[in-house]
Amino acid sequence: MGRPGRWTAVQLEASIEAVVGGASYETAQLLTGVPMSTVRGHVVRRGLLRRRVPRPGRRRVGESSLPETVAAAIAAAARHDTAGEGASTAPGRSRAHGGVMGTERRRRDGALSQEEREEIRVGIEAGESDTAIANCIGRHRSTVCARSR
Fold this sequence. Notes:
The chain is an all-alpha fold. The chain has helices at about 10-20, 25-30, 35-45, 65-85, 90-95, 115-125, 130-135, 140-145. It has eight helices and no strands.
C-alpha cells in the first residue's frame, strides 16, 4: 500500500476503528501514533463510513419546539429582569436556548413621524408642491420629494 511506518497493523486497525466510531483523525493519531493521512487513506480505500459526530457550536432547535423555546426564553428574560441581572444577560440566555430576542425598534433622530408622513400624503394627493408641503411640516423640501409623481 504505502511505505511502512513505525506503527503496527494492530495500531492501524485501532486507529481506523476509532475513526469509524466517531473520533477525529487527529484524535486517532494521538491515541495510536498512526498519522492522520494514513488513517484517512485506509478509511477511504476500504469504503468505510465515519459516524457523524456533532461539531461544537450552536445547538440547532427543531421547528416543532421553536415556539416553546422562544416562550421559555422570554419567560427567562423576564425572570432575569426582575432578578436584577444586566440587560445583556437575557439575550445570551435566549440564544443558548435556541431563541431570538428582538430589540425594541427605535427610529433614528430626524426620521419622519407617522403624522408627518400623513401630511405629506395628503399634500401630494391635493397636488401641492414639495416646497409647500415641506413648509407645512417644517422640513426641507428634499425630504418631501415625491419621485413617483
